[in-house]
Amino acid sequence: MKTFTFRPIDGEAGGNVGMVTIKDVAREAGVSVASVSRALNGHGGVTADTVERVREVAERLRYVPHMAARSLITRRTHTIGALLPDLYGEFFSELIRGVDLAARARGLHLLVSSSHDGVADAAAAMRAMQGRVDGMLILSPWVDAAFLHANLPPSLPVLLLNSAVHDAGYSVLNIDNFGGAHAMTRHLVGAGHADVAFIAGPAANYDAQQRELGYRAAMAEFAPRTALNIVPGEFTEESGYQAGRALLAQPRRPRAVFAANDMMAVGCLYAFKEAGLRVPEDIALAGFDDIPIARYLTPPLSTVRVRIAELGRDALERLATLLETPDGPAAMETLDCELVVRETCGASSAAASSGGR
């Protein structure tokens, strides 16, 4: 279990940062410690001139409030926890970037941990964060309602990302995995690729499950006479490469391949090029997520766009709302996806207009 802390930095570090105390500010400004606290925290009870003088002295001395001491008073750590299944890859780096930018804008710290080693790892990460965070963002295949009730205090604000949990005590923010996969499969069939194979994601992953269901539903609707062709994957480039080789070893090569995420599509593209196949002339390819590198591949990758950094930002904003209104009702929201038609699917972007759902 790896844990990293991100914190906003206001101004340049250096000098006596961390050594100046509130007593030093009070002495330099000629006021009491209580007046310094009121002036810096905006609690009132001091004149405007005093506020201005205290803030000028604090800035000149580079005074940084002692967060641990403040937390004892406010019972707030000003830190948000984020539990993710992994920290590797462009999807998670973009997600963390979105969360961190939104946290910085609110003056919050971000504590990030992973749970890729399984359910015990997820439970350990949650327990390690308790008392250190004011709320938690959780994206983990190991989490269900019973697990949350067993490992988190009911008073801790929690927002679940891409989760199948349906519990009145937890808010959930999902992306439309089913609709996105359905739309891409429909687009590939509509582009003349009735024989569409699918590279699935991890069996326990909710995103992967929903994307496979979207593929199955679209094939049944738009290519009912075509047998389903699903090969396993693990959301990694290597698993995509191995899936691509497995598809090429089949007696009949599929006309198109839809990978359940872009990282597997990248590995699959390499397998096709290694075999001397041209994409999309010999075989079409599509992915899911629209990670930043997707547009820079040769050829550029057709995919289902998830605005990943915006997903992270929206998640943080929703969790911040839960912090401000802890007694508010839990909500379940689903964000739309969109087709991004580039060169690998062998169809024009105009054809995508009929592929939405």
From TrEMBL:
Keyword terms: DNA-binding, Repressor, Transcription, Transcription regulation
Gene3D superfamilies: 3.40.50.2300, lambda repressor-like DNA-binding domains
Domain HTH lacI-type intervals: 20-74
Top-rank lineage group of the source organism: Bacteria
Alphabetized SMART domains for the sequence: HTH_LACI
UniProt GO MF annotations: DNA-binding transcription factor activity; transcription cis-regulatory region binding
InterPro entries to which the protein is assigned, alphabetical: HTH_LacI, LacI/GalR-like_sensor, Lambda_DNA-bd_dom_sf, Peripla_BP_I
Protein name: LacI family transcriptional regulator
Organism of origin: Fulvimonas soli
